[in-house]
């Protein structure tokens, strides 16, 4: 989907820096998110990826710089993980109504978009990892977000499950017209689903279209030259086997 630079950006960060325990985690980061684009942030462990997302939602204070959000911006956030006491009897429908009550219609629509409508009456404690993450996605969709933020939302899923999850994200972007900002370590999967990639290592090393970033010296210095071939391979599979990916939808939710 083309980026429309004449539109008001959803998020604009300038010279963003964050320090934790006296250590500077992020330094001088500039970020602009346009409506409807999918942007992936990649980087090694400890590069500040999750910190960047948390600073945008206001969970982490800045030590320098600024973040400006579009007035009234609706954000849906899918965390890396969420712990629920396995002894707590709570259904998916009840979970989606906390802390704010959600109507049956809204609940059904969110679960449908997340690809797990049949889980509505299932106990949260009995969900698989893939099902649980899709329920978290449904919860984020209840606000009808203009920006969907995903922090390593497929951690722990196998490659087929991850590919199916990100295919679902692309469908959601198409249906809702929302922008997506996500962090992942699954380079060849998420980069294939992205309009733009930001390579982060405390600062922005490089950014641009996936093919541009995959061939950039800064990216290859961090991840090795083999990842460029993996991206090309996945792009080929992604473009020609989309139905096969969707055949994993049920598999990913099990």
Brief digest:
The protein has a six-stranded mixed sheet, with helices on both faces.
Describe this structure in words.
- The chain is of the alpha/beta class and 254 residues long.
- The chain has a single domain (11-84, 145-252), classed as P-loop containing nucleotide triphosphate hydrolases (Rossmann fold), CATH 3.40.50.
- The protein contains 11 helices and 9 strands.
- The chain has helices spanning 49-56, 92-96, 104-114, 129-141, 159-176, 187-192, 210-214, 217-223, 226-240, 242-246, 249-252; strands at 11-20, 23-33, 38-42, 64-69, 75-78, 147-151, 179-183, 196-200, 204-208.
- The strands form 2 sheets. A 6-stranded mixed beta sheet has the order 5-6-7-3-8-9, sandwiched between helices. A 3-stranded antiparallel beta sheet has the order 2-1-4, covered by helices on one side.
- α3 (104-114) crosses α4 (129-141).
- The chain starts with 10 loop residues before the first strand and ends with a helix.
């Amino acid at each position: 989907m083309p980026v429309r630079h004449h539109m008001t950006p959803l998020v604009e960060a300038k010279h963003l820096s964050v320090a934790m325990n006296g250590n500077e985690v992020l330094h001088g980061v500039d970020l602009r998110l346009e409506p409807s684009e999918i942007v992936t942030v990649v980087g090694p462990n400890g590069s500040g990826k999750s910190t960047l997302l948390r600073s945008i939602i206001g969970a982490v204070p800045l030590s320098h710089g600024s973040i400006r959000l579009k007035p009234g911006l609706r954000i849906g956030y899918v965390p890396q993980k969420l712990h629920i006491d396995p002894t707590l009897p709570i259904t998916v429908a009840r979970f989606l109504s906390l802390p704010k009550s959600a109507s049956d219609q809204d609940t059904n629509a969110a679960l449908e978009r997340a690809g797990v409508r049949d889980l509505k009456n299932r106990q949260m404690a009995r969900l698989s990892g893939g099902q649980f993450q899709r329920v978290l996605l449904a919860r984020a969709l209840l606000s009808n977000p203009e920006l969907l933020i995903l922090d390593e939302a497929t951690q722990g899923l196998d490659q087929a499950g991850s590919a199916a999850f990100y295919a679902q994200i692309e469908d959601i972007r198409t249906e809702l017209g929302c922008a997506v900002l996500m962090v992942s370590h699954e380079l060849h999967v998420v980069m294939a689903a992205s309009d733009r990639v930001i390579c982060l290592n405390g600062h922005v090393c490089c950014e641009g279209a996936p093919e541009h970033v995959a061939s950039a010296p800064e990216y290859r210095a961090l991840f090795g030259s083999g990842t460029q071939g993996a991206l090309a391979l996945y792009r080929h599979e992604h473009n020609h086997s989309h139905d096969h990916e969707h055949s994993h939808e049920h598999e990913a939710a099990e």
